[in-house]
Amino acid sequence: MSIIFPNFFRDRLIGVVALLTIQVFSSMAFSQSDQNGVVHRQQSLPEVRRVGWSIPLPEETKVSTSTEDDLLLLSDSTGVHGLHLSSGLPAWPVGENDFGYLLQSIFAPEKSNSKPSAGTVHKIRGSTYWTAVVPGTSLGTRLTPLELVSLNLTAQGRLEWRQSSEELMNEQNWSFASAPLVKGDEVFILLHHPQKGWRCAALNSSGNRIWSHPVLNLQGDFDTVQLQKSGASLFVITGQNAIELIIHDSIIRERLFEVASSSNDRGTLETLVTETHLVRLCGSQLDIWERTGGTLLFSRVLPVHLTFLWGETQGNMILSGKSLMAMDVNSGKETWRLAPASPGLQGVGRGVMMNGSLLWPTGDELWQIGLAAGEIEKRIPLRQLTGIHGGDLMLLKNSLLIHRSDSISLLELVQPR
Fold it and tell me: Of 122, 146, 349, 402, which sits with the fewest C-beta atoms within 10 Å of its C-beta?
């Protein structure tokens, strides 16, 4: 079977691997939290799982899905690649005459022939490309600080539109400074000007500007800034502060959240907005605000370095890194913690919430953990049974994706007879 992908994918893509059926799950109900921390119940998973396919990935590959279109989206510095979730095969061609190639050659930073205006280039550590899916319609992606584009997922990744940061603001020296955030048919993104500071803009599904508004109190840099949207509020969060833009018709009001201290850790930034709380994890520092009044409930340096915010459930905030912790969301007191000593049993990614339990990926196993007391309910020897190591988990309708830094695998969930 011939599979064509540019560069790394063309040379390294692995097709469907052995259909290895393993009895590892008893029937249980899974739940998964959305980006606002609300836990949603999923259908009961069957007993049988099989490895459907596995592919290697370049470093710093971003992964997102559009389950309505049976698509897995992979973006890296070469462009955006679409795979069919069911088979792992390319969803659209990427030859020299295809839009995928056009996107790759025009927008990838190392291949761009355009010279940016003075003052528009900012040093950004790590990757400079992000993606955001508009369900069922298109993919908004930022591949350079100067360009935002949209691909039509239902038309083999056809280029729908592209928007320049300078054209969007009708002025030179503006650049995009955050990942695009999609809510409904609107796209929100942060922009920066070296002299005029920060603005947040809203675009419609055609890439046209609906509004832009200055963010006067923003502190931080391009490495640690995230957008979150909940109800009529848009939150701009950095390692230094948190700002709420309250949107009512055409009136936008800015509110600065109370801050006890700024994080000096320039590592990872994780943010979460629930109905009642705003949560920020920056390096080892955790801050939780009461959302209505903006009051800082507590700010503490964690005893261990945690990387992932899972969500809020049963009055606890779930966090993980090499260890797994539940913390009372109002007091900041530790409810329970699991800290395996063996490297193969330490956490390696973000898991999923289940009905009263968590599914936590370690290096060699998947652990089912009870939410109430942190007890280990089941240990699944993933690597021993499948040869696959743990990673970030993404629970889909009939499958489980495991994303690691160098590969992604799909485990098919088959209904019992």
Answer: 122
